[in-house]
Predict the 3D structure of the following.
Amino acid sequence: MSHDAEVNPMSQQYPDPAEPLAPRAEPPPIQATYWVPPPPPPPSSQPHIGRWIVVAFLVAAIAAGGSGIGVGWGLASVFRHPSAVVTSPIAIASPTTPPNNGGSLDANAIAALVTPAIVDINTITTSGQASGTGQILTQDGEVLTNNHVVDGSTSISVVIAGRTGNFHAHVIGVAPASDVALIQIEGVTGLPTVTIAASSNVKVGDAIVAIGNALGLGGAPSVTSGNVTALDQTITASEGGANSEQLSGMIQSDAAIQPGDSGGAIVNSSGQVVGMITAGDVQGFRSQTSTTNYSIPTDTAISVVNRIQSGQAASDIVYGQVGFMGVSVRDTNAGGAQVVTVQPGSPAESAGISPGAIISKVGGTTITSSASLGTAIRSHKAGDAVSISWTDQTGSHKTTMTLAGVNP
């Protein structure tokens, strides 16, 4: 990102300063930065809003635990199945022999095989604009991208290479804990598609090409080359220094990436996609380019996509567009989820919830942490009337809150 303001400050979780820190048996994890995509250049009358995500990088041996998704503006979720269930799973191609280029990697020639199926994704959130990248999976416009590219969006538009104008898109389903999203471009047919290869065949030292919508500038995708430097990496991503989710099994490479490349493709020397760009390790808050990047392997991403396409109910998958209740929360020794901030005009504000309140129950579910609040809210769709219980300085309260929705 290139600016200080955050696109979605309401999706943060905050540590409780009153809680003592647990002793560390190992050195603390490295702190780095990974981007939610930047916005496209706005009209002169609008601010250019960006967002940063802090990431702690952990050794792969550390199990990916349930750190929980940030509870905030984009929390309540619409649980509904895709309007058209796809019965044929996305095919994973067998590895092919790379072209003989005399031992050199022709990044542009490789990219030419892929870029027709790479799209720019531009979103509007409740607090600003953002941009990212997507990969076309089906001829009728299903697109793979990161959950954090579309999280909290009120509108999604897509730019397709070789076609004029912007195309509206909607969310089919997301898996927040995996940072995978499947979106649908509306009203399109006959699109080129990426070729997906099994990421299990990737080896350290393999040459790769990274393709994405660098800096959200649009136009021809950016193309950089590098090598796979590590496999099976685990990163813990958090927004604004707050806990978010752990992503494990990541592919690490040294191709240069920039904000806006999120959701883009990591491509092998045969022009097959083996990973989806998700995170970059940069030194300094204002850094623009990372030469240490982390990608979700295609085996993981396509497994999630095929589950979304099947329309099966699952605790880790959210179908449809995302709604919200409008609070940021943190864990507390008192139990429940303590409210840190309340979004003006949100369902939480309308219900009378204020900062400092401790949410103790949602429907029939007892809330024991910020993570359990997220789980409870995700069991309800936007528009649902949900019973909420909380305590504050004035005593105990219970009311019925109507969850709101975005991406109408």
Q: What stands out?
A: The helical segments are 107-114, 147-150, 298-310, 347-351, 370-377. Confidence is low (pLDDT under 50) at residues 1-87, 239-243. The longest helix spans residues 298-310.
